[in-house]
Amino acid sequence: MNQKILKSLLIYIALIHPAVFSQNYIETYEVTDFMDKPYMPQQYTPYADEEIEREAEMVAAANGHASRENTTMTSSSFVNWTRESFISDVSLDVEKAGIPMPSGKATSVKKIEMDLPILIKDPLLSLYVDNSKTLNDLVVDGTITLENITRIVDRSHKTPSFFTAGGSTLLTKHTIDLKNISSSLVKHTKPYAQPQPIDSIASRKYTGIVLDARGTMPVQGEFSSSRVYPCLFPKIWNEDMDLVYEKNMVFPETAKKEGIVHYSSSDLIEDYNGRVGKDPLWISVKKVYGINRCDPVISREDYLRIASIKENLELLKNGKVVLLLDKDLLEHKVTSPNKDKNYYITYHRLKRYFLEKKVPDIGLADIPTGIQITMDNLRFVADSAELLESEKSRIAIIAESLKRATAGGEYTILVEGHTADVNKPTGQMNLSVERAQSIVNALVDSGLNKKLFTFKGYGGTKPAATNSTAEGRAKNRRVEIIIMPKGSYLMTK
Q1: Where is mean pLDDT largest: 187-201, 242-256, 347-361?
Q2: pLDDT tens digits, residue range 229-262?
Q3: Which of 332, 214, 333 is nearest to 265 (CA)?
Q4: Which residues are 367's β-sheet partners?
Q5: Helix (H, G, I), strand (E, B) or coil at 442
Q6: pTM: predicted TM-score of the whole model, two decimal places
Q7: Pick from 413, 420, 311, 409: nearest CA to 370
Q8: Which member of 156, 434, 471, 485 has the lowest number of beta carbons within 10 Å of its beta carbon?
């Protein structure tokens, strides 16, 4: 089989395997006459403990989480947003892999090339694209194809492989230029013009724009605070939530070649004057915005200092923007949740538990951050966070499942609230936070430790269905409970 085809197949298996075993499977009806419905193949669900163990070991290994005793390859990944690099240190134990030396070095190098995409998949796809999506989200919605991923991995820089002194471990370093990813996502052919505002203030021409977003700041539209996190395509807003800057405002050639911002943690203009010149406009960021906390929010006055001068608007078109963030957010290890055999045993036991209980409107999925339990069509008192009495039985069953899953102390729980979009974004956001907290309180009242929980609200920003129908809005009024492994993991194969 052609090497590239085989590699694509391996990536495909690694990407879809969790999805195959994470589709909603809860049966809320009984089929009395199978001839009334077209035949649908039944999804395999391991039921006996032996089947669950066997399936868990297989899925863990397929996704780069082999058990220690079966590990032949490991990968440790690191991201440097300032240098726009995603670096992976890869090692192969040739003795454990059964590859004879010295004749098998070429075979060892080929094995690394074949298995590398699976090993780096989870860390790489966890990177933020913008204020609401990760690379994994783009894979799921089809924006990035498997061919894109394979091509990027193949064309990335690899150091020559070498053995540890006197050892049987083959080492190499693999570096992905993040611009190779971001450039594939730039689709516009010309920048759209940012109009000059009706009102203006005294300003002057600058050579570039530097936004200082270091430290913790308020979150726009929420009663919380956060730091600003790096992503491929940050947007800049003003405090009136007018869009000041985004990728489609930049010349596409510039966006592809240089990215739309340069990240740094340094106060020294010499570190980035090639990007913004020697006389940039310095702006102190006031707030942060977005689900992923990636978008800086500036004052209206600072926005007008840019927009009042035509030449300053040209700086945006040419990507003359530097964003200062905390160094530990720009340079850090990228880890994955510890989805080992025990994780998938927990997952399949939850699946079995929900099958037995036949709980309505419940979905189970293996997502990048953990095991997701979705409670659709939650019923609250109108426009409040108070659960209706009829929901308590469903909450009790969920609580029991969480007690079983977290009994070993290996997990934490994130509760995420979502609402339908009725064009009241601030109210929706606040209500989703309050409803997520209400679910946490109900689960704690059912006997779970409060220290297990964190919660977030997303308002109507992450719809699961259309908001144009009553059925769609009901599906969007949901709570998602994510059981997250505490430990991170060195990817193994």
Answers
A1: 242-256
A2: 999 999 999 999 999 999 999 999 999 999 999 9
A3: 214
A4: 370
A5: helix
A6: 0.78
A7: 413
A8: 471
Structure confidence at residue 277 (pLDDT): 97
Integer Cα distance of 361 and 374 in angstroms: 8
Measuring CA to CA, which residue among 250, 215, 235 is closest to residue 290? 235
Tens digit of each residue's pLDDT (9 = 90 or more) over 263-321? 999 999 999 999 999 999 999 999 999 989 999 999 999 999 999 999 999 999 999 99
Q: Is residue 375 within 8 Å of residue 361, measured between CB atoms?
A: yes
Buried b / exposed e over 324-357, threshold 16 CB at 10 Å, is bbbeebbbeebbbbbbbbbbbbbbbbbbbbbeee
Domain boundaries of the chain, sorted by first residue: 67-185, 187-332, 338-492
C-alpha–C-alpha distance, residues 245 and 131, integer Å: 13
CB 129, CB 135: distance < 8 Å: yes
Beta strand 491-492 with 73-80: parallel, antiparallel or unpaired? antiparallel
Cα-Cα-Cα-Cα torsion 37, 43, 45, 51, nearest 10 degrees, comes to 130
Q: Are strands 295-298 and 236-238 parallel, antiparallel or unpaired?
A: parallel
C-alpha 464/C-alpha 459 separation (Å) is: 12
CATH 3.40.50.300 describes domain 338-492: no
Q: How far apart are the first and last CA of the chain?
A: 21
Identify the burial level of 265 via C-beta atoms within 10 angstroms of its C-beta, where 0-12 means exposed, 13-18 middle and 19 or more buried. middle
Distance CA 364, CA 208 (A): 48
